[in-house]
Amino acid sequence: xxxxxxxxxxxxxxxxxxxxxxxxxxxxxxxxxxxxxxxxxxxxxxxxxxxxxxxxxxxxxxxxxxxxxxxxxxxxxxxxxxxxxxxxxxxxxxxxxxxxxxxxxxxxxxxxxxxxxxxxxxxxxxxxxxxxxxxxxxxxxxxxxxxxxxxxxxxxxxxxxxxxxxxxxxxxxxxxxxxxxxxxxxxxxxxxxxxxxxxxxxxxxxxxxxxxxxxxxxxxxxxxxxxxxxxxxxxxxxxxxxxxxxxxxxxxxxxxxxxxxxxxxxxxxxxxxxxxxxxxxxxxxxxxxxxxxxxxxxxxxxxxxxxxxxxxxxxxxxxxxxxxxxxxxxxxxxxxxxxxxxxxxxxxxxxxxxxxxxxxxxxxxxxxxxxxxxxxxxxxxxxxxxxxxxxxxxxxxxxxxxxxxxxxxxxxxxxxxxxxxxxxxxxxxxxxxxxxxxxxxxxxxxxxxxxxxxxxxxxxxxxxxxxxxxxxxxxxxxxxxxxxxxxxxxxxxxxxxxxxxxxxxxxxxxxxxxxxxxxxxxxxxxxxxxxxxxxxxxxxxxxxxxxxxxxxxxxxxxxxxxxxxxxxxxxxxxxxxxxxxxxxxxxxxxxxxxxxxxxxxxxxxxxxxxxxxxxxxxxxxxxxxxxxxxxxxxxxxxxxxxxxxxxxxxxxxxxxxxxxxxxxx
Length: 665
Description:
Layout: H1 3-20, H2 34-43, H3 46-55, H4 57-73, H5 79-85, H6 88-91, H7 93-105, E1 114-116, E2 122-124, H8 126-132, H9 136-144, H10 166-173, H11 176-182, E3 185-187, H12 191-195, H13 199-207, E4 213-217, E5 231-232, H14 233-239, H15 253-256, H16 271-276, H17 281-289, H18 304-314, H19 318-334, H20 351-357, H21 367-379, H22 394-404, H23 409-420, H24 435-441, H25 448-456, H26 466-475, H27 477-480, H28 496-509, H29 511-520, H30 527-537, H31 542-549, H32 566-576, H33 582-594, H34 609-615, H35 620-644, H36 650-664
């Protein structure tokens, strides 16, 4: 150890010994020789010097420069932040001011951000701490020392030295969206005083250059700080109901900071939309008078007019509803708000459609109250046939509301009123249906009163939906009996496949329907298929087989997909069904022969019906049919020879052939 190190160690041990046994009634350090005093200030650590300054008036002045200088060089300087964080009533304002002056004099930085990780992470500058505590004199002193009124801090309300709870602060904002947005922003010193309405602090900070933007969106590491989409003074004023929105000079903040008047909160609304929640007409007028954009659009796709209409229906009292009615009229008449489709594609509905969409599901509104929002729109040019960005008109919106909610005569009256005023009842829905078609296909003609109203107002179907409606018309007898609806008017649009399907239903279930179809839709392409299926698969085939034969275009020469003619199918039925007797088989064979069945037609195995019957000759019923067909074949040969020799005419030939069929039975 060098002589200098030995000297330093002796001084430190001596001073520490005196400090531990110090009698506070006497300042024994004052009489220490000068060279020792210099050595002490040079060699002692900061904690020891700090304790020494507290017990000796001489040393307090002697070591203070080094204490504050060393603190300013520390990674986490304490003096200035401590002075800004304590209560002047408890510590004494003179002490706090002295500490601030000394700290700045010896290199302290009033704009240095203090970081803390436990028990709650936050960061703030001294100005944040003094402003949030309401220490107006401390704030003035910091500003005198060039504190920046626009520094950023975050989550410092969690600091135990601050009595204001974060939840209390958010409730004071009076707007949940703004409060939530504040959690994801960095705050300026003015934010808390402005929310808590500390007028002197607000005036002081604004006069010192504080920005009207109170909080900046926190973008994380890739930070960007544009002034738009942050929280500004006007958002708070618009949120806090009944708050005075002028400064101490009685100048409107909305006029003073009009550059911020249309800025939205992060992922939220502008001051105009926020103020609409309270229905303060005077405040809204002040916002618009100072540049509030009546056509601005929220991220939810609403304009101020649409938002006012929504609030009208949400109002719980007649007084508030009347207030919003006046606001709607003000927006339309005085501000010239667009009453038709907005050019911004984010706006899904037109104002007219919004007036329907916002009707509460419990329908606790009268026709007069609904008209109170709709009439001003129509009177100022709202087009009843205007199409929204999602393809809806006012009638479409009302149609959906009526069909999906409980029936209400008020809405039916409104629907009829719109049609009488020129709304197009036959404009196609976005799904591709007409309103009449959707009422039938999707909602099964419910509500019934509304369905009848559509027919009364001459609603019609479109060709693409006719088949689907025809299917329901076939399935429901009550539907067919609706006197106001005549499906036959759409008969030209019914496809053959739909007609064929209808006949199948009629043949299986409804004789009257069959007669109705045969009268109005006589053309069918499946009669022969139905006849064949009846022969092959029905235990009692007579009904379907007889119905199929009634078609004038029935082709007895039909060949089924299985390769069999109708006569082959009769033979197959004899083989399959024991109760199917030869007498009935002969009558069925006569019926198909009359309609053109060929006695010599062959199946996939090149067998004629007679060949098949010969194979089944042990079956008496098959023998009866075989003899009948054989007799017909042989006797027809002579009849054909006479016709070919021109001994009989074509008409005589056909008559004799019919007689022959009966005679052979």
